[in-house]
Specification:
Layout (H helix, E strand, L loop, with lengths): L12 H11 L7 H14 L3 E5 L2 H11 L7 E5 L5 H7 L4 E5 L21 E7 L8 H11 L3 E4 L7 E3 L5 E3 L6 E5 L12 E5 L5 H8 L5 H5 L19 H12 L1 H25 L19 E3 L3 H13 L15 H6 L6 H9 E3 L8 H12 L3
Helix pairs in contact: 1-8, 2-8, 3-4, 9-13
The protein binds pyridoxal-5'-phosphate.
The site of pyridoxal-5'-phosphate has 14 residues, from helix 3 and helix 4.
């Protein structure tokens, strides 16, 4: 069976973990953590990066930094992972779900404005498959209504957006705050891991405190205060040096990982074009001004029935292809607290989207087996 994903390891992870252990600093915020953070700040143009133990944790930090409280509303796309909403629900927010675009599973930027009310405290956007939302539209809404933007950039490492003004910016460097994931299913990974990007530096002093259990430890180590103590809310959001050392090995290999993923993506895209058009299946769209980081290659079937038989067909050919999110607005948990209007495009992707295997070590012969097997489906 060709699996949907095999997490890639470079071979250097153990060596760096051993170094971390030998250094005697194994808890968080040591030299590997600092190396990773400085790397992402420089490469992605993030003002300040803090490693976290997951993207979910980074989103929870965002909810604390934005003082989300009972009665506040937070706008979140429905077609996303649970964490994009959960981090804010935990603080008591009411989630106002936004629908996807008709031509792309990402949020429909033109429908956000009508969801804004006097209670809206934040807008969360998700760059689905690492493909940028229209950040010019999103950031101008933010300015017009003075509402902060959080980018859920979990899938968006090394992906970019070209603004109307012509600036090429990394995803995760545009919103006030952003969250990345290094879960084993993402392009670069450390098992479980994440990163909080702070692009509006007003959030930085509190972020450092929230990151380290509500203490001003960071200030103490910079010599800015002569003792450290409990000054705010927070939790233990920072990963150990073991994880940061693992991640450093992945960072070193990032360019070759990305190059191979893009090659595989392009083979799929080129070879499946004609077949897909013939049976009314859509291939992924790269929206205007967005780049492609080859996080995902998906098909959009014409209906649930076609997707179900395609999954079965591929399984019979030894291939694991999997669908993706079930819209959050229609989830059991959300419907128990709130019965919203229905969101047709989110429902459409829930029923019709199918993801193909895409990982660094996917063998050439397997790629062609997947393509030939798809072509045998009509
Ligand atoms: C993977 C993912 C997450 C969760 O990331 P973790 O690091 O597992 O917490 C959140 N949002 C999106 C869009 C994701 O793809």
């Amino acid at each position: 069976m060709i699996p949907f994903n095999i997490p890639y390891t470079t071979g250097k992870e153990l060596q760096y973990i051993q170094k971390a252990i030998q250094s005697g600093h194994i808890s968080g915020n040591g030299s590997y953590t600092k190396m990773c953070q400085e790397y992402f700040e420089a490469r992605l143009g993030i003002r300040k990066a803090l490693l976290t133990t997951s993207c979910t944790d980074a989103l929870e930090m965002c909810a604390l930094l934005l003082n989300i409280d009972k009665g506040d509303e937070v706008i979140v796309p429905s077609y996303t992972f649970v964490s994009s909403a959960l981090a804010f629900v935990r603080q008591g927010a009411k989630i106002i779900f936004a629908d996807s675009r008709g031509d792309h599973p990402g949020v429909d930027e033109d429908q956000i404005e009508q969801l804004i009310s006097s209670k809206t405290k934040a807008i969360i956007i998700v760059h689905y498959a690492g493909v940028a939302c229209d950040m010019d539209k999103i950031m101008s809404l933010s300015e017009k209504y003075h509402i902060p933007i959080v980018e859920d950039a979990a899938q968006s490492i090394d992906s970019f957006y070209v603004s109307k003004a012509g600036d090429r910016k990394a995803l995760g460097s545009i919103g006030h705050l952003a969250a990345f994931s290094f879960h084993e299913t993402k392009n670069i990974q450390c098992g479980e891991g994440g990163l909080l990007a702070i692009n509006d530096l007003r959030f930085l002093p509190r972020a450092e405190i929230i990151w380290e259990k509500g203490t001003n430890r960071a200030k103490f180590f910079r010599g800015e205060v002569n003792k450290y103590g409990w000054v705010d809310t927070g939790s233990s959001f920072l990963p150990s040096e073991i994880l940061a050392a693992f991640l450093w090995a992945q960072i070193e290999a990032m360019d070759s990982i990305q190059q191979r993923r893009k090659e595989i993506w392009n083979i799929y895209n080129r070879e499946l074009l004609e077949w897909a058009a013939g049976i009314n299946v859509k291939l992924p769209k790269i929206t205007d001004n967005a780049s492609n980081n080859a996080h995902m290659f998906y098909l959009i079937c014409s209906d649930l029935e076609q997707r179900t038989s395609l999954i079965r067909h591929l399984k019979n050919h030894g291939i694991m292809a999997v669908f993706h999110y079930q819209s959050l607005h229609a989830s059991e948990y959300y419907r128990s607290i709130n019965k919203d209007r229905d969101l047709n495009n989110a429902n459409y992707y829930s029923s019709c989207l199918l993801r193909l295997p895409l990982y660094f070590s996917l063998k050439e012969e397997d790629i062609w087996h997947i393509i030939d097997s798809l072509k045998a489906f009509s």
